[in-house]
Design goal:
Family: Belongs to the short-chain dehydrogenases/reductases (SDR) family.
Strand content: 5-15%
CATH superfamily: NAD(P)-binding Rossmann-like Domain
InterPro entries: NAD(P)-bd_dom_sf (IPR036291), Sc_DH/Rdtase_CS (IPR020904), SDR_fam (IPR002347)
Pfam family, one: adh_short_C2
Keywords: NADP, Oxidoreductase
CATH topology: Rossmann fold
CATH class: Alpha Beta
CATH architecture: 3-Layer(aba) Sandwich
Order of helices and strands: EHEHEHEHEHEHHHE
Low-confidence stretches: none
Mean pLDDT: 88
Largest sheet: 7 strands, parallel
Distance between the termini: 29 Å
Number of strands: 7
GO molecular function, one term: oxidoreductase activity
Number of domains: 1
Helix content: 40-55%
Number of helices: 8
Length: about 260
């Protein structure tokens, strides 16, 4: 039987859509006491709150506009979580930003990626995970020892799959992998587990933005021809949920690849 999430509080970044929203839905379905939803794209908030209430009326849902690349906004969000008085049992760093794929025209793709794309990719994909994890640990370390808190970072196949393009995104995700393993070792004595999952191609708004201006169906067919099946967000959310829950108590510093085409 799966471990219950009742009386447990979770924070999910990038949770107004895509993998983050799917994770929030599963947390509510499993009985989470409270879910703090943080996202810079707030258009999905109005839909998420009633949707989660319909799944589980007992789950308290808190939404906040948060740009995870801005440490002051992250600290303000976690200050709100602290004021909630229930502690923090799990953090899912799902927020991600894929720089638009560079063109296929001849020449160096490295020269096509802009400084702005590079900095945005670093700011959201790795700086954000650092800021949020640091703020979460401050709350988690003061909780009772049997609280079993956990942090899950969402990396990507881009961390290990060298595409020769989209340099900022792939580099940031590779950095996130190193950060996760280092954090797992550092936080072991505090009883805080840290893991990550590497997602393959997923039907999310990030996929649409990455291939903006290109035929989406043709792009998916191209990916499938390379053995990269496009998954639904719920596939990754199920893994995140397991890593956040007490079902994975003896798992830390571990990567779980999700999706075809990932070794």
């Amino acid at each position: 039987m799966a471990a219950a999430l009742t009386s447990r509080t979770f924070a999910v970044t990038g949770s107004a859509s895509g993998i983050g929203a799917a994770t929030a839905r599963l947390l509510a379905r499993r009985g989470a006491a409270a879910i703090y939803i943080g996202d810079v794209n707030t258009a999905g908030f109005d839909q998420m709150k009633p949707e989660l209430a319909a799944i589980n009326p007992g789950t308290k849902v808190h939404t906040r506009t948060v740009d995870v690349s801005v440490p002051e906004q992250v600290d303000a969000w976690f200050s709100e979580i602290k004021q909630g008085g229930t502690g923090l049992h799990g953090l899912a760093n799902v927020a991600g930003l894929a720089g638009r794929q560079v063109s296929n025209k001849p020449g160096s793709k490295l020269l096509e990626e802009t400084v702005e794309q590079w900095r945005k990719a670093m700011g959201v994909n790795i700086d954000g995970a650092f800021y949020c994890s640091r703020a979460a640990v401050k709350l988690m370390q003061s909780m009772p020892k049997d609280s079993n808190p956990a942090i899950v970072n969402v990396a990507s196949m881009a961390a290990i799959f060298h595409s020769g393009s989209n340099f900022g995104y792939g580099t940031a995700k590779a950095g996130l992998v190193h950060f996760t393993t280092s954090a797992a070792k550092d936080l072991y004595d505090l009883g805080i587990r840290v893991n990550w999952c590497s997602s393959g191609t997923t039907n999310t708004p990030i996929l649409d933005r990455a291939f903006e201006g290109q035929n989406r169906d043709e792009t998916i067919k191209m990916l499938q021809s390379q053995g990269l099946k496009a998954m639904e967000p719920s596939s990754i959310a199920r893994v995140i949920l397991w890593l956040l829950s007490e079902d994975s108590l003896d798992v830390s510093g571990v990567n779980i690849p999700v999706g075809q085409g990932i070794p």
